[in-house]
């Protein structure tokens, strides 16, 4: 019973703190930009959270995956293959998303309005300064609208990638079989996700994204881990959904957590050193 309570309470806490810290930069972005100690504190928290996730993955999740595949008698190392598949799948998805963002930026630059100075210089011009002012104003408004659209699309794709991570992180949380393991993994996921939500919210807020759009993005991001935990918890209560299926989902979650640790947490800390 204590395990079920932990699997309900932990995702709710994670939901609240992720959304709260995700929208906090809306009110603190200017003040935090001038802060000196802020980056050091964030780096320490990210490093600590990454270490907890790293240990939880190798010491708890992957052994459970191996145990779940113990009934399958094949020479091929299936548990390790599932973990690798989860790792590579997340990598492939992020590469596709980055490619879409890059193409969107190229299309935006290609379709940008022609500046006033680039117009035909050979044609005689008899207008007054008001005409030039109106043309420049229209060009600026079109460029600003294009920039806002690209910013919203880029932010949405970023949140989509992070939400996919969070879904499997929550899935790993819901698949834990003991209260201690649930809270241990929650601590690592919570530190990583809340700091990540704050950093993403800070970046999008500083870039000028609309407050309502940022709130919607953070709500989506915050809901993914509880949704994954719910799927994992329901899977454990279903007796027809045990053994290899649960171990497979756990392996995918382990691969996701490894990707988060080695491709998001550690490179970010290394760049700050």
TrEMBL record:
Its main location: membrane. It comes from the Eukaryota. It is found in: Membrane. One of its GO terms (cellular component) is plasma membrane. The keyword Methyltransferase does not apply. GO terms for molecular function: zinc ion transmembrane transporter activity. It is a multi-pass membrane protein. The chain crosses the membrane at residues 6-29, 41-62, 74-93, 156-176, 182-202, 214-234, 246-266. Keywords: Membrane, Transmembrane, Transmembrane helix. PANTHER family: FI18611P1-RELATED, ZINC/IRON TRANSPORTER. This is Transmembrane protein. It comes from Ornithodoros moubata (Soft tick).
């Amino acid at each position: 019973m204590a395990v079920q309570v932990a699997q309900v309470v932990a995702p709710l806490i994670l939901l609240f703190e992720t959304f709260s810290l995700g929208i906090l930069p809306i009110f603190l972005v200017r003040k935090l930009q001038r802060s000196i100690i802020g980056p050091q504190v964030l780096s320490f928290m990210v490093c600590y959270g990454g270490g907890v996730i790293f240990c939880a993955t190798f010491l708890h999740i992957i052994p459970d995956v191996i145990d779940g595949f113990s009934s399958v008698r094949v020479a091929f190392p299936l548990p390790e293959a599932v973990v690798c598949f989860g790792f590579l799948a997340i990598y492939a998805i992020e590469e596709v998303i980055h490619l879409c963002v890059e193409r969107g930026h190229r299309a935006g630059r290609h379709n940008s309005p022609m500046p006033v100075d680039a117009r035909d210089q050979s044609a005689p011009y008899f207008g007054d300064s008001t005409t030039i002012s109106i043309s420049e104003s229209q060009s600026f408004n079109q460029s600003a609208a294009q920039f806002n659209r690209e910013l919203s699309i880029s932010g949405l794709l970023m949140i989509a990638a992070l939400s996919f991570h969070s879904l499997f992180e929550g899935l790993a949380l819901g698949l834990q079989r003991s209260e201690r393991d649930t809270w241990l993994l929650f601590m690592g996921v919570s530190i990583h996700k809340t700091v990540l939500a704050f950093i993403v919210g800070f970046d999008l807020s500083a870039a000028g994204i609309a407050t309502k759009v940022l709130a919607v993005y953070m709500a989506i991001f915050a809901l993914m881990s509880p949704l994954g935990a719910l799927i994992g918890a329901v899977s454990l209560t279903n007796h027809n959904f045990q053994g290899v299926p649960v171990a497979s989902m756990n392996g995918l979650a382990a691969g996701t957590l490894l990707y988060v640790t080695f491709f998001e947490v550690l490179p970010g800390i290394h760049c700050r050193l």
